Amino acid sequence: MINSPSDPFSPVTSYEQAMGKMRFILPLLMLITTGLSLWGRSWDRQFFLWINTSIPRALPDSLLPMWDTTMIALTYLGDTHVMLWMILLISLPWWMAVDRKTPDKLSLYLVVFAIVLVLAILASQGLKEIVGTLRPAGVLPVESLRILGKTLNYRSFPSGHTVTAFAGMCTLLPVIPASWRWGALTLAAGTGFSRIGVGAHWPIDVAAGAFLGIVAGMMGWRIAFWLQQKRHAENTFWKKFNHGLAMLGLFIMAANVAYTPFYEFEHRSIRLGLIGLCLILALFLGYYQRGRSE
């Protein structure tokens, strides 16, 4: 049974345990986003300036390079290329463990991945085109800001990197140890924080991006469970549709790996370092999963 509660690799059980925390986080993010958009635009600007300029100015000169590198590294966790590598490497031990038990779980995860990716892209890019707000560099004097990377002026709301970070982490949460889950969410929050630190987004963009990323992740799992039920109902169309989504997820992951040598060269050492860190985490997770499967 793919969804047996006694199975340590049960997707339904893992999903309910991992996503239960989100029921408290989502209303808070919605409240922050709504409050800043209706009454707190001045607070939004002040909070941005505090993170982007006040904190770096308060640091000793010897710590500024460390601050900048941390902001850039956290930002790259929300880069789609790096996040796809993270999902692949960290979920790989889980794949290897469940493949020995039932291939249905591997197919389910690939379907989740494909759906979450599509939902995250549609939510992020769609709202950017519809809302069309200016970024901090398009509103405030550029010389007064601490810009790390390219100077961006348009398509501010929501933060696409934050959407990607939270959607990716929600894809991973049910397949990683419970003790890792708060750490994963903290990294996603760090990505959102870094988007303010590098001067690319307002706090409201980050709050909305976190909300949308979590919703995309939760919907991806829910839709995948629903499709799995349809698939087992002996319906040929749903079987083919489910199989097509799984193949799409596998193709995207393979294409991302193949594209790595041709990806942008800026901060390449940081990106490769993050991918290497994910590989190390995957090795630790492999030992953990092997213990669970024995």
Radius of gyration: 20 Å
Largest sheet: none
Taking the alpha carbons of the first and last residues, their distance comes to 18 Å
Helical/strand content category: mainly alpha
Which series of helices and strands comes N to C? HHHHHHHHHHHH
DSSP helix count?
Answer: 12
- The low-confidence parts are none
Count all strands and give the number.
0
Outline of the structure:
With 294 residues, the chain is mainly α. It has helices at residues 11-19, 22-38, 41-58, 64-76, 80-99, 103-131, 136-139, 160-172, 178-197, 203-231, 236-259, 268-293. It is globular, with a radius of gyration of 20 Å.
Detailed description of the structure:
It is globular, with a radius of gyration of 20 Å. Helices cover 76% and strands 0% of the residues. It is built from 12 helices and no strands. It is mostly helical and 294 residues long. It has one domain.
Layout of secondary structure:
Layout: H1 11-19, H2 22-38, H3 41-58, H4 64-76, H5 80-99, H6 103-131, H7 136-139, H8 160-172, H9 178-197, H10 203-231, H11 236-259, H12 268-293
Helix pairs in contact: 2-10, 4-9, 5-8, 5-12, 6-8, 6-10, 6-11, 8-9, 8-10, 9-10, 10-11
Key traits:
mainly alpha, 0% strand, 294 residues, single chain
